[in-house]
Amino acid sequence: MKCLKVSSDAGSKMSCGHLRFRLMMVQVPDSFDPDSPCIITAPSSGSRGVYGAIGTAGEWGLKRGCAVAYTDKGTGTGAHDLEDNTVNLITGEREDANVAGKKSNFTARISDRNREKFNSQTPNRFAFKHAHSQQNPEKDWGKNVLQSIEFAFFVLNEMFGPPGPDEKNYKTILPSNTVVIASSVSNGGGASVRAAEQDKKGLLDGVAVSEPNVNPEFDPHFSIVQGDSESFFDHSRSLYDYTTLLNVYQGCASLDPAIAGDAPLNFAGNPNICASLREKGLLTFDSLEEQAAEAQQIINTYGILPEQNIVMPSHWFINVPQGVSVTYANTYSRSKVTENLCGYSFGATDPVTGAPVPFASENEATLFGLSNGIPPTAGINLINNLAPGGPKENRMSTLDQNTDGALCLRSFAIGLDIITNLALKGRALKTQRKIEIGIKQIRASGDLHGLPAIFVTGRSDAILPPNHTSRAYFGLNQLKNNDNSNLRYYEVLNAQHLDALNGLPGFNELFIPLHHYFVQAMDIMFDHLTKGTPLPDSQVVRTTPRGRNSDGTVPNISLTNIPAIAADPDPGSRITFENNIVQIPD
Questions:
Q1: Number of separate domains in the chain
Q2: Mean pLDDT on 174-194
Q3: Which domain holds residue 474?
Q4: Among residues 44, 45, 47, 186, which one is catalytic?
Q5: Were both Cys, which of 127, 243, 263, 525 would link to 132 (CB 3.0–4.6 Å)?
């Protein structure tokens, strides 16, 4: 199925397609030059829908006159209300699932009989595309991006190819004469990296991504060293691994006196979590301050940088590790929505009692546009089905904010019962093995086949920590490609994952926008591919936070705060790989 939408006001044309729950769209600006064609990939960040990268890679591409190839990677917002059996169409409207049929963006694999039984036991619940498609869509992220590029070539030749025989246009816009850059941020950036690894047809010319969610294969033959610290060999942990660790300990670590007063949005630290972890033998100290400091130390020993500590409490407050842990446990294990893995489910809840309630139809109508695809989002919350007295919103469900649920998810990551250290059994063992297989399916090889590539990552990224993502991938790529490596890594100081938070008090004075450097990376890659401009060497970009004026206000940002990526970085800022060590300057 494909559709063509024309918008003269926007100065662009859009074509869209649907492929087994994967949405694709190509946006062609009026400024597109068929004699000098270019295509930018824009897979969605997070688990957003097909429009999710319009404001990032899409904006850059359209302004450059390039066609933009979008895809939701099979993880975009698809919300199936199991109570009233409505789903999103690929255009975003809501429809009865049976009426929608193949036009549905996502419909859970559940019979009407089983759905009715599920509703009688757990009413007012949702299935979400990323969590409950039972496909582990992340394993196909690279393929989906490559498919979106091929769709873009099809659309462009339909629009600009001269007429040929049999009412088919000649193909004149080809990979050989088109600049194609794999791009996007976060999950979208990771998808583009995987596309570059899997590109067997020569579709891509370069890669430029920001804060990519990559899960590189672990290779023990290299280490990471920041400044004069000890070598860190325990890199390349999976997203599921380090996120479930944070899901267990961050609610306690947020109370660490070393950061508690300085961390912005630090509203959800809970002494009961510390006490519960102590009671279960996962912390050893008795005083609250010592317990919080110990929890923070456990997190940092796992490769989370001290520069990330001050950001972590805000992510706990907005349910990042909680939501990611639940969604990815479901997707990697290919669990059905009816399994309620570790007692979790998704649904709207009463703000006072926390009990599940019907989701308002007017809110349901906006899910496609407002949801990021990973509950809690747009009014859909995490629910603890195992709460004493009946299901409740996860945080409200117990005094320790459902630590038992977090420990259940963590046990799948380590392959043992986290309390007893005994092997998992029965259903838990089967789920753990499926998660292990799911993670293996999404591991990145590190082999970019010598393709020019740029990674931009903030050192304070508290969602995708550099030691397990960009730094680790950089080291693996150096081993895999050796002298043929053409990857540049730019690590930006005072930058974190969620630029949207930077307008808030506390964040505005401490952090600079990482997106600024994504745009610069795109410019650098485009000039490299079109003009032959050399790629700057890997480096630490030394930014300056805005701080506060004497009257307490935060000054406007200026170029002094955000210096350019240096064409020839000084020796003290260069990131190198020598003697199997990724050396990161302080």
A1: 2
A2: 98
A3: 214-237+447-586
A4: 186
A5: 127
